[in-house]
Each structure stands twice: as C-alpha cells, then as structure tokens.
C-alpha cells in the first residue's frame, strides 16, 4: 500500500491512524458506497466538503456520510454571510485532491476546517486518506487537534 502525502503528514505529527483500503467505483463515489465496502456504519464514515464563503474564502466541512451540508450553518460558523460548494473544476487546483479522494489533511494550503460534532461520539471515524480507495481510521480528537478544526454543530 502506497502512503499518501496526508499519511506522511500524520506520521510526522505523531498522529496514530490506520490506512484502510477499499474497492471504489468511478460510478459511485458516495460515502454510502465507502461505508458498505468497509462494512461500517455510515455515521462513522465522514466526507470532506470544500466551500467558498462570500467574506472569508475557502473553508472545509467534514460531515457524516449521510448528511447534507447546511449552507446557512456552514456560512455562519465560518464567519460568512453566505457560501457555496466549490466548483468541481476548482477542487484539484485548490486542494490538490480530486472528488472522492479529498482529505481534510494535507491540502495545498491550510483552510479553516469544521468537523461535525457527532464525530466526538466515536472512538474512531473514517475520512479520506487523500486518494480514492483509501481511508484513514482515526480518532476524532486527533483529527480535531491536527487540523485545528472548529465544531460543526448538529
């Protein structure tokens, strides 16, 4: 298994994680598919969404796989009046990641990050390790600490 840049960054920071491979499908990059492949509850499989606020620019929300981002909540917690999802064509040049492989760890720049508070209910969660077909199994407390994330409220 090839280590991703995100994995090397967590190694350098002394953050414990496991790399968990899974079979991905170009036709279905959903978190539901990832959860099914991992045999895990969808509530523990988190997706990384990149948004653009009208005042503060790019920020990141990490939310449970079966949730939809609430743009009003996301705008409020990020200090924006409004926000929208980053256009797909902007994802790679902005973050260094592609759809289905976007991790809150190791983006090209450090962006304000907000992790859904439900992550704290679990000993571990799954997030993308920076490429399709590979997830981190990581403590949410470690992820909050490493990313300096704020809480995305229920």
* Rg (CA only): 14 Å
Average pLDDT metric: 95
Main sheet strand line-up: 4-2-3-5-8
CATH superfamily: YbaK/aminoacyl-tRNA synthetase-associated domain
CATH topology heading? YbaK protein
CATH secondary-structure class: Alpha Beta
Order of helices and strands: HEHEEHEHEEEHE
Sheet having the most strands:
5 strands, mixed
Structural class designation = alpha/beta
> What's the domain count?
1
Quick one: overall form? globular
Question: Helix segment count?
Answer: 5
Under the CATH scheme, the architecture is: Alpha-Beta Complex
Please estimate the helix content: 25-40%
Q: Assess the beta-strand content as a share of residues.
A: 25-35%
Low-confidence runs (pLDDT<50, min 5 residues)?
Answer: none
Distance between the termini: 36 Å
Question: How many beta-strand segments?
Answer: 8
Keyphrases for this structure?
about 150 residues; alpha/beta; YbaK protein; 3-stranded antiparallel β-sheet; about 30% strand; globular
